[in-house]
Amino acid sequence: MFVAHNIEAHVLVSGKVQGVYYRAHAKDEADRLGVAGWIRNLPDGRVEGLFRGPEEAVRAMVKWCETGPPRAVVTAVKCEERVLDEGWDGPHVFEIR
After folding, report:
1. Mean pLDDT for the chain?
2. Which of 2, 29, 73, 90 could form a disulfide with 16 if both were Cys (CB 3.0 to 4.6 A apart)?
3. What is the pairing mode between strands 36-41 and 94-96?
4. What value does the mean pLDDT take over residues 49-63?
C-alpha cells in the first residue's frame, strides 16, 4: 500500500527568471496545487523557493519550476527534498518574499 507523505522541497532556479513574473506565476501555481511555502528573488539573478505539502503536489510544483511562466527561460533547477514529520499540518500559505 502506498502512503503519501508531506514533503518539503528547496529549489534554486537559474536562467532568465527575474523580471518575467516568475514569482507571481509560481504563487498562482502553488495556490492551485495547494502547496505552502515561499518564493523570492536572489541578488545573483536566481529564484529560490521552499515548497511544503503532499508529496505529489510538491513534486508537481518542482516540475512546474523547470519551465516556469511563458516569458521565463529556465536553464537549471536544483532541488533538495526531505520528508516532513508526520504531524506537520501547516501553515498552508504560499507567499512571495
Report:
1. 92
2. 73
3. parallel
4. 95
Report the catalytic residues. 23, 41
- Supply the CATH number for residue 12's domain: 3.30.70.100
Task: Let me know if residue 95 belongs to a domain.
Answer: no
Q: How many domains does the chain have?
A: 1
Per-residue pLDDT reduced to its tens digit, 8-53 = 999 999 999 999 999 999 999 999 999 999 999 999 999 999 999 9
Phi first, then psi: what are they for 84, rounded to 5°? -85, 155
**Cβ atoms < 10 Å from Cβ of 2:** 5
Domain of residue 46: give its range. Answer: 6-84
Asked, for residue 92, whether it belongs to a domain, the answer is no
Residue 97, domain member (yes or no): no
* 69 or 93, higher pLDDT: 69
Q: How far is CA 59 from CA 39, 45, 64, 70, 71, in A?
A: 15, 23, 9, 20, 22
